[in-house]
Structure formats: C-alpha cells, structure tokens
Amino acid sequence: MLPVLGALVVDSGRGDRVGEFRGVAGPYWSLRPVGGGAEWEAEPHRVRPALLMEQLRARTARLNARSRGEVL
Q1: How many angstroms separate the Cα of 58 from the Cα of each of 11, 27, 64?
Q2: Which residue ranges in the chain fall short of pLDDT 50?
Q3: How much is the pLDDT for 70?
Q4: Which residues, 6+ apart, have CB-to-CB distance to 65 below 8 Å?
Q5: Whether this model's pTM surpasses 0.85
Q6: Nearest to 18 by CA among 9, 6, 29
Q7: Is the CB of residue 70 less than 8 Å from the CB of residue 29?
Q8: Cβ atoms within 10 Å, residue 11
C-alpha cells in the first residue's frame, strides 16, 4: 500500500534515513529529505512509516540546520 504524498517514512536501506514520500518511479519509491533537497529512490520493501519520535527528530534536525545557516 502506498503512503500518502508527503508522508514521512523511513528507508532502512539507507541507514534508517527519514524522508517524505514523493511518488513512484518504476519499481522504486521516490523520497526526499525533510524540508527539501535531492530525492533518492528506495526499494518499497525497505520503507516503513516513520514513528512520531522519528518524525520529530527529522524536523528538529532540519530546523536546527536552518538556524545555523546551513540550509535555507
């Protein structure tokens, strides 16, 4: 079953990286870092919904990087 567009998911094939679901590209799912950045492709069987704690951690990391001027 596909996640909702924009849902936060965890890619266990990339070290439990959290990303936003962006759609399907052939046999892969397209994911994007929280808050923007380059998309990557993930194998659907390695992706699961992000837990609330993982969602908060990813959003906080993005906000902290922004406050340091590392990202826009």
Answers
A1: 13, 26, 10
A2: none
A3: 87
A4: 71
A5: yes
A6: 9
A7: no
A8: 20
